[in-house]
Write a structure and sequence with these properties.
Elements: H1 4-11, E1 29-32, E2 35-38, E3 44-45, E4 48-49, H2 61-83, E5 91-100, H3 108-123, E6 130-136, E7 145-152
Parallel strand pairs: 5-6
Antiparallel strand pairs: 1-2, 2-7, 3-4, 5-7
Length: 153
């Protein structure tokens, strides 16, 4: 029987991907007690980086929102790989977002709303989280953005 959260994802028009492999010498997610923290997730789809570039440069704000949704899906996939089911998540605690921004781009929060709103739709009040939204000059692999999630399970 499908998990409740994965069913909700499908209803919203999304599909949970397979958790992307780490691209370095780190764990994609780790659990300590009832806390799961993901490593930074970039917009990989089927092992390929999508939407490379800088927001406010090569990429639009709408591209950034899409990239944020992909990153959130990858982070959720990492959590599922760590604990076995997204239904075990009691609450999303924190989203850390790093936006690959061209000079003058200041709509980081709007871009990260793509991820935040998806989490809120999936988990309701328990999806509301603290957040950091930062702009950075360079990003690994030239990714549009990177996020990590902290979740209580």
């Amino acid at each position: 029987m499908p998990d409740r959260i994965e069913t909700r994802l499908t209803e919203l028009g999304f599909k949970l991907p397979t958790a992307p492999a780490a691209v370095g010498a780190y764990a994609p997610a780790t659990q300590v007690g009832n806390l799961v923290i993901t490593s930074g997730q970039i917009p990989f789809v089927d092992g390929e980086l999508v939407l490379p570039g800088k927001l406010g440069g090569e990429l639009t704000e709408e591209d950034g929102v899409k990239a944020a949704q992909i990153c959130a899906l990858n982070a959720l996939a990492q959590i599922k790989a760590c604990v076995g089911s997204l239904d075990k998540v009691k609450r999303i605690l924190r989203l850390e977002g790093y936006v690959h921004a061209a000079p003058g781009f200041r709509r980081h929060a709007n871009v990260l709303n793509g991820a935040s709103e998806l989490l809120n739709h999936l988990y309701g009040e328990n999806g509301k989280h603290t957040r950091i939204a930062l702009g950075v000059n360079e990003m690994p692999l030239g990714a549009a953005l990177q996020i990590c999630l902290w979740a209580e399970v």
